[in-house]
Each structure stands twice: as structure tokens, then as C-alpha cells.
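Usage

Read records sequentially. Each one opens with the input sequence:
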Amino acid sequence: MGVWIMAGITFREAARKKILWTALLAGAAFLLVFGIGLHFQVGDFRNSAVPPFLRYQVVSAMLMIGLYTVDLLAVVMTTLTSVDTISGEITSGTIHAIATKPLARWQILIGKWLGFVAMAGVYVGLMFWGTIAEGYWIGGVMAQHPVRGSLLVFLECIVALSVTFMFGTWFSTLTSGVITLGLLGVAFLGGWLEQMSGFTEGSRLAMVGIISSLIMPSEALWRRAAFEMESPLSGSLQFSPFADISIPSAAMIGYACAYLCIALGVAVYHFGERDL
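and closes with the structure output:
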């Protein structure tokens, strides 16, 4: 019961943060711009001699780019809104008001984590399915397996959240934020290097990408989500940024789940042992 009470409190506190409302405004602006751009693209096709099959592929590619933007927004929003919840409260001393209650420290941390998991779920749901709806109603296209894609994007956010919490029990707000965003950047670069290895058939380049995914599996989850959602033809095109060149396996999804559990376990252990 204490865990769920703490989760509810954390969710309400997070909902009052300015950065969350800023992220929601940015998301609303993205949906507006994406919808307008999609509408103009469809309108231009009506006045052109482009074959319907090619039109569908172009609009589908636009939908994938939109979903990729949603993925980036969701991961960054999850990281920035949660980076201050542990380290900031420890630094300011406000954690003492909670830690003195009849709650175990693990209940405090898990409750806070669950609150941010719920918040990330709401954000991903609104942004992801809003983009899917615009693609369908405006462009007449639909992702292949949108439910699988949305769950993988949500899992990516939970991985980033768990890592943020882990570093938050060790370092200051600024340091833990920089480290987490740095790891996300390494994963982003490594994912694209692994993708590029298919063009050059370079095993060493692919190895760099694989190691980066093992260090931080966030980008691998997105590439698996893209594989699940894009059309078979788009995935087979070698010049597509989401081509099926290097597809993370189901084992990588399992690794990401184990990765977040370990990160959360380390956070719980260190939060219970450190001097507040």
C-alpha cells in the first residue's frame, strides 16, 4: 500500500512540473506541424502524376519519421522530468520528510519510479497514438504493428527512467542528467553506426554498434520498434534510414528488460545504504 501511495503522490507532483507541461506543449506543436505537413504532402500528390503505390510509400516514410520524433521526445521527457526526483530531494533535504515516515526506503524509491512509469505511459500513449491517428485520417496509412511499436517505445522510456534513478542515488541532479543523456547519445550514435555497417558490410563498424547497444539498449529498442511498424517494402529498401539492415533480435528485448531491472535494483540498494 505504501508503494502505491508514493506512486500517486509522485504522479501528481510530476504533473505539476513546468518541464512536463513544456513537453506536452512541444508534443502538441509537433502533432500540429506533423498533421499540417502530412496534409500538404497528400494535397501535392493529388495534383501530381505520382503512382498511388509510390504515394503510399512516401507517406508511410513520413509516418515513420514522425514516430521516430515521438520516440526521441518521450525518452528525453522521461529523463528530464525524473532526473531531480531522487538526487534533488536528497540535496535539498526534502527527502527527510518522507524517509521519516513508516515506509521502507525501497518503498519510497519504487513508488516514485512507478509514478514516473505511469506518467511516461500517458505521454507515450498521447503522442504515439496521436501520430498514428494523423497518419491514418490524413494520409491514409497505418503502421504494421502499432501496439508492438508503442510497447517497445514505452519500454525504452522505462529503461531511461531506471538508469536516471540509478545515477540519481549516486550523483547530483546535473551529473546524473548529463551521464544519462550521454549514454542515450552513445546508444543513438552506435545504433546508426550499426545501421551504416550494412551499406559498407563492415563487421568492425557493426561491432561498435553492438557494444553501444549493450552499454545502453535504448536505440536498439527503437530499431526493433521500427522493424515491427514499417512496411516490408520500406524495410527492404537499402537507402531507407529504417532499412532492415541490422535488426535487434528478441534476445535484445530480453536484455533490455534485464538491464532496467539491474539498474533499478542497484538504485534500490544504494538508496537504502547511503546516508541521507
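Summary fields computed downstream for this record:
- The chain has one domain: 2-273.
- The radius of gyration is 20 Å.
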